[in-house]
Specification:
InterPro entries: PLipase_C/P1_nuclease_dom_sf, S1/P1nuclease. The chain contains twelve helices and seven strands. The chain has 309 residues and is mainly α. Helix 7 crosses helix 11. It binds 2-acetamido-2-deoxy-beta-D-glucopyranose (NAG) (5 copies).
Length: 309
């Protein structure tokens, strides 16, 4: 094969640069951890349904498929806005629906063409809704394997504070910082850098050791909080909206706080922020299990209906 011509090289470079922007959500690790936690809290019925829906390549483990939605981001370009939600520079997420004729509008949940519901909250409700047609072949025209893989990914994403953040800076993507000595942007710091550093400092760079520590904490440090994490009184849809409200609050109080362009973030930032990241990974796991149990557990589904709007 001939060497690529300069034009082609430039194009390739451009493609790579574009790919680097907002390319991931929680990095691979974050998504895998969230799903590994969720797997431990699935009811028998839910675990069986999940196993049946997973592709053979998953080896029966949901966590292996949780980064999938990032891997298909270029093939499924329409799904890009489903990884996040933006607010107009405000620390509140406004999901109040306004009605005009038969249409409804959300301030903070639409894609760049204004198509309503095309954000991470809409996506979680959408894929939940699709999975509720499991075993009901008359209603199911969707590929439920994909619905499951999308849902598992987006429940992780909605817990990453900078996935529900300011439109102006693309959730921190346009804020350049240094993470210790390395160049990064703020979004990447929260997707990947903090997790990498905490894995290196505390868990011997081992993902399973970190999952184990988070899991242990469910019965220790967090035991009093878990009933509140699981509390979802919204019987019409999931509680994704509440998780988004939490995230933008954390974005303002932790992620953006005291950060400016070109700042170097080091120990002070790391030590005050990593506990937030650990907690969000754990909460994402618990909530994903909750949603899947409500979808698939036939014993509970009558008392906890989950119909997306
Ligand atoms: C949310 O948006 C609606 C409609 O735009 C507005 O009426 C309402 O005051 C907003 N609520 C908050 C808490 O900002
Ligand atoms: C709902 O899922 C379908 C199938 O993947 C997709 O075409 C549609 O854009 C999704 N909408 C939202 C809001 O997630
Ligand atoms: C459903 O989606 C998965 C993942 O994209 C794909 O491998 C599989 O072939 C699809 N199944 C059908 C019936 O289209
Ligand atoms: C366990 O929970 C406590 C209390 O919230 C928290 O301070 C600590 O960082 C958590 N530990 C881990 C490993 O997440
Ligand atoms: C669950 O949340 C609702 C509404 O926020 C609240 O009224 C209720 O007390 C909570 N229940 C528990 C067990 O935390």
């Amino acid at each position: 094969m001939a060497a690529p011509r300069p034009q082609q090289q430039l194009l390739l470079l451009l493609v790579l640069l574009l790919a680097a922007r907002r390319a991931e959500a929680w990095g691979k690790e974050g998504h895998i951890m969230t799903c590994k936690i969720a797997e431990r809290y699935l009811s028998e019925d839910a675990a069986a349904a999940v196993r049946e829906l997973l592709p053979a390549s998953a080896g029966g483990e949901l966590s292996t498929m949780c980064p999938w939605a990032d891997e298909v981001r270029f093939r499924y370009h329409w799904a890009s806005p489903l990884h996040y939600a933006n607010t107009p520079g405000l620390c509140s997420f406004n999901s109040t629906r306004r009605f005009l004729l038969l249409l409804s509008f959300y301030r903070d949940c639409h894609n760049s063409n204004g198509v309503q519901g095309m954000c991470v909250i809409g996506a979680i409700n959408n894929y939940t809704d699709q999975l509720l047609t499991y075993k009901d072949s008359t209603k199911s025209s969707y590929n439920l394997t994909e619905s499951l893989m999308f849902l598992a990914h987006f429940v992780g994403d909605v817990h990453q504070p900078l996935h529900v953040a300011f439109e102006e800076d693309e959730g921190g993507n346009t804020i350049n910082v240094h993470w210790y000595k390395a160049k990064a942007n703020l979004h990447h710091v929260w997707d990947v850098s903090i997790i990498d550093t905490v894995m290196k400092n505390l868990y011997n760079k081992d993902l399973d050791t970190m999952v184990e520590a988070l899991h242990m904490n469910m019965t220790n440090g967090w035991s009093d909080d878990i009933s509140q994490w699981k509390n979802c009184t919204n019987t019409q849809t999931t509680c994704a909206n509440d998780y988004a409200v939490e995230s933008v609050g954390l974005a303002c109080n932790y992620a953006y706080k005291d950060v400016e362009e070109d700042i170097t973030l080091g120990d002070e930032y790391y030590f005050s922020r990593y506990p937030v990241v650990e907690k969000r990974l754990a909460q994402g796991g618990i909530r994903l299990a909750l949603i899947l149990n409500r979808i698939f557990d036939k014993k509970k589904v009558d008392t906890m209906p989950l119909y997306a709007q």
